Structure formats: C-alpha cells, structure tokens
Amino acid sequence: MAGVKKTKTVSSKAGDNLNLLPDFLKILFSDKNPKTAKNVILAGITIVITTLAIFLYMLFASRNQWGLENKDTDYLSEIQKSNEAQGSLPQFFPSDFPVFDGATLKNNWTTKSTNVTGVSIIWETDQLPTKVFNFYFTQLISLDYKTEVISQTENSYTLSFEKPGLNGFVGITQAEGKTLISVTLGIKNEGQ
Fold first, then answer.
1. Which UniProt keywords apply (predicted)?
2. What pTM does this model have?
3. What are the pLDDT digits (tens) for 1-26?
4. Where are the domains of the chain?
C-alpha cells in the first residue's frame, strides 16, 4: 500500500533492560543470539569478574570508610586460591552468612591485606536462579544485612549487602542448566 509506513513492534520483555547493559553484554542477553554453551559460560565468567572488580573497588574505597590513612599499604599483599572445591569454606568466611542448601562449593579465593580480608566463593546448584535469589534476599534481610538488588534480569541477579565490618555482593546466574552462585565478601580485620 502506498503511503503506509511499516513500524516495528517492540515487545516489552526482560530484553527492554538491554539498554542498561554495556555493549559486550547486550549480545549475550539479546533474543537474536542463541544461548550456546560458550555464551552462557562467558556470561558466568563476566559476572564473576564484575563481582571481583566491584569487590576490589570496595576494598580500596573501604580505606576511607574504616578510617585507614596509610596510603602506602599494599592492599593486595597476599592472595590465596583454594582448590578445596568439594571441601570446606575458607577460614575467614562468617559463620552466620547464609549458604544455599545443597549447593556444591566449586572454588574460593582469599585476599588478605592489613585491614581487610576479601573472600570470593563460587557454588553451583541445580535449583533455578529465582529460588536462589529469593533465598539470599530473604535470608540476608532476616540476618539484619542492609540488602539491595543491584541488577535483575531473566536468569541473572546481583545483590549487595552490608553490615558493620562486612560488605559484599552475591551474583546469581544460570549456566549450562546449573545455577552459579558467586559471593564476594569484604571483612574488616579485627582490631582495625
């Protein structure tokens, strides 16, 4: 028909939030890209790297929050990686922090400085990301953590949490039919 202009219909699904993502993540979550195993793994790795980057930022920013004044301190003085994939939690992991029931510990890292100890842990579970998200959101609030949802898409969530002397993030994403749980903690060392 002459004079009739065709318009493209845009659906209002979770994809509407793609404009908020950096370009390199948009392709992972767009409807045009089939969810291949490689892309799902890349999405999981991206979430873990982003969580670690945010943690490191918080580690350096915490100097001011906790009154640390020595700018010459080596904040990354010791990094330890534990290969106890099926073993126990790291020594510095808070005993009252919630752990999703039935999740398998895949790996953990500990970063220790003079004033702050950083712990990053990755678990895996067969449960859906929404169930894991609901667990962490309700548990953290019930344990008096100041909790905020940083991002939420169809199968990916990021929560921040804070309590005196402790802060961090929980990243939850789906990869190859499993749900990955990444917890990054910044723990103020006692006596600091």
1. Membrane, Transmembrane, Transmembrane helix
2. 0.59
3. 555 555 444 444 444 555 655 555 55
4. 18-68+78-188
